[in-house]
Design brief:
Layout (H helix, E strand, L loop, with lengths): L1 E3 L6 H9 L4 E3 L1 H20 L23 H12 L3 E4 L2 H15 L8 H12 L3 E2 L2 E3 L8 H11 L4 E4 L2 E4 H8 L10 H6 L3 H31 L9 H7 L2 H14 L17 H4 L1 H22 L8 E3 L4 E3 L7 H29 L21 H17 L21 H30 L9 H13 L9 H12 L3 H7 L5
Parallel strand pairs: 1-2
Antiparallel strand pairs: 3-5, 4-6, 6-7, 8-9
């Protein structure tokens, strides 16, 4: 059971909720804060005080006073009008993360919602009822208004949900389970949609997959090094300590560990003096990606426990401040950085693929085919990798450098952080397939080496990989092999067999 208190949610806990179906509940202390914050909102309404979003309209309409008898209509109108997301829905895991993070943010006690709203979010997570939330339509400032409005629709019994593998009307699922729709009261609609939970949820899911891929890229590149009789001298600890980046030092150490005991690798000057950069500079390039991942993790960890709605209520309602914590710029920059850093993992991987298949760059059969000429072997696998890498270059263009004014120029600078997070996630899916292609080619190249000379760890990767796809005897439809390996890279088997035993 993961206990939410608005302050201490961790990546490990989020991963358990998203991947393992761990149940969640709110701490008693955080719910007590929520109650006090709600009492402050009700006092504001009863006193007729003019406070943004509680007794006024929204955005450019913030100067329009709303009498107390209309506050419920104000909130439901807000949700319905702002639910204008378009495009394919977010994956269920992202929708689930959005509810988890929104509940955690509201538990900080600065938002003025009733406990029942948070209880409903928790109930939906624990019941595996996930709102259908279109991916496109957020500017990433004023919060993720459109995506979060689709989430809020589900709380009031509208919109659609994913439940037991089916996309269904919320009303139908509620009726089946005996769940009653909520009625939003003062401030609650705004509190639900003023936040960065769409970009943050997508970012959390993306970085979790990115971390696993970064680890896998080291194991896969170790197989490539063996297949190409790579020079391990370049990974000597003294080289990397001389530069001083800890992440680079760590990657080099893990490569040495993967390759320990291998008779396929060489020392400097044994076959050649230097390897190409795509082999020699793996610690420098992959290490820089780890630096970026650590930065992204740090920002997401803060945002997962942040109050990002507006206005925020302090001192039992004596201080209600309209600020801009909903602005997604910190996450927008982090997501752009994530996409760029992971695109580089694919860039250098594609160069290693080229070295595996190009007979001018190795001593292996052309395109790793046993019947070169009659059969094309792995020739077009490199094309596919190059295509994915090129696509990533367009997706890695920073979304955060763009801004379009909205709400009659009241909201005149926005982050585009949700676009950045979606693009980062797309890049990561492409990276996985590029790494799958490298793994495929490295294993095939090793068919022409003495596999008994492989290191213990790399041979374990090879043998498990061969359980997924057989060696190539003749040309076949290779796309099936790549998708099989890419799917395997998503599984926990890697974590259990190859990653946990290393110092990762």
């Amino acid at each position: 059971m993961v206990i939410l208190d608005g302050e201490h949610l961790t990546f490990d806990q989020v991963e358990k909720v998203l991947n393992d179906g761990e149940m969640i509940k709110a701490s008693e202390e955080s719910m007590a804060r929520v109650v006090k914050s709600r009492e402050a909102v009700e006092k504001i309404v009863n006193e007729g005080r003019v406070i943004y979003g509680i007794t006024t309209g929204f955005g450019k309409l913030s100067d329009v006073y709303i009498p107390s008898e209309d506050v419920e209509d104000l909130q439901i109108n807000l949700i319905r009008s702002h639910a204008c997301g378009v495009g394919d829905p977010f994956p269920e895991k992202v929708s689930r993360a959005m509810m988890l993070l929104r509940a955690n943010a509201l538990l900080k006690g600065f938002s003025g919602v009733r406990p029942v709203l948070i209880e409903r979010l928790i109930e939906l997570v624990n019941s595996n009822i996930h709102p259908v939330i279109p991916q496109q339509g957020s500017l990433g400032a004023s919060g993720d208004l459109a995506p979060l409005s689709h989430l809020a629709l589900v709380l009031v019994g509208e919109g659609e949900v994913f439940y037991k593998g089916e996309r269904q009307p919320t009303e139908k699922v509620y009726q089946r389970l005996g769940i009653f729709p909520l009625t939003l009261t003062a401030k609650e609609g705004l509190a639900l949609i003023n936040g960065t939970q769409a970009m943050t949820a997508q970012g959390v899911v993306a970085v979790m997959e990115a971390i696993q891929l970064a680890k896998q890229s080291e194991a896969i590149s170790a197989l490539t090094i063996e297949a190409l009789n790579g020079i391990v001298t370049a990974f000597d600890e003294s080289v990397h300590k001389a530069r001083g980046y800890q992440e680079q030092i760590d990657v080099a150490a893990r490569l040495r560990e993967y390759l320990s005991g291998s008779s396929l690798v060489t020392e400097q000057g044994e076959l050649r003096v230097q390897d190409a950069y795509s082999l020699r500079c793996i610690p420098q390039v992959h290490g820089a990606t780890w630096q970026a991942l650590n930065y992204v993790i740090e920002k997401l960890q803060i945002e997962m426990n942040a109050a990002t709605d507006n206005p925020l209520i302090f001192d039992d309602g004596d201080k209600v401040i309209s600020g801009g914590n909903f602005h997604g710029q910190p996450i927008a920059l982090a997501m752009d950085f994530l996409g760029i850093a992971m695109a580089e993992v694919a860039n250098i991987s594609e160069r290693r693929i080229e070295r595996l298949v190009n007979p001018q760059l190795n001593d292996l059969p052309p395109f790793l085919s046993k019947n070169s000429g009659l059969e094309s072997g792995a020739m077009i696998l490199q094309y596919a990798a190059a295509s994915l890498v090129s696509e990533n270059k367009t997706l890695a263009h920073p979304a955060s450098v763009d801004s379009i004014p909205s709400s009659a120029n009241q909201e005149d600078h926005v982050s585009m952080g949700t676009i950045g997070s979606r693009h980062a996630y797309q890049i990561i899916q492409n990276v996985r397939r590029v790494l799958a292609i490298e793994l495929f080619c490295a294993m095939q190249a090793l068919e022409f080496r003495d596999k008994d000379k492989m290191a213990e760890r790399t041979k374990a990767v090879y043998l498990k990989g061969r359980e997924q796809v057989p060696a190539v005897e003749h040309d076949r439809v290779f796309s099936k092999d790549i998708e099989k390996l890419a799917g395997w890279l998503l599984t926990n088997e890697w974590k259990q067999l190859f990653l946990e035993s290393l110092k990762l």
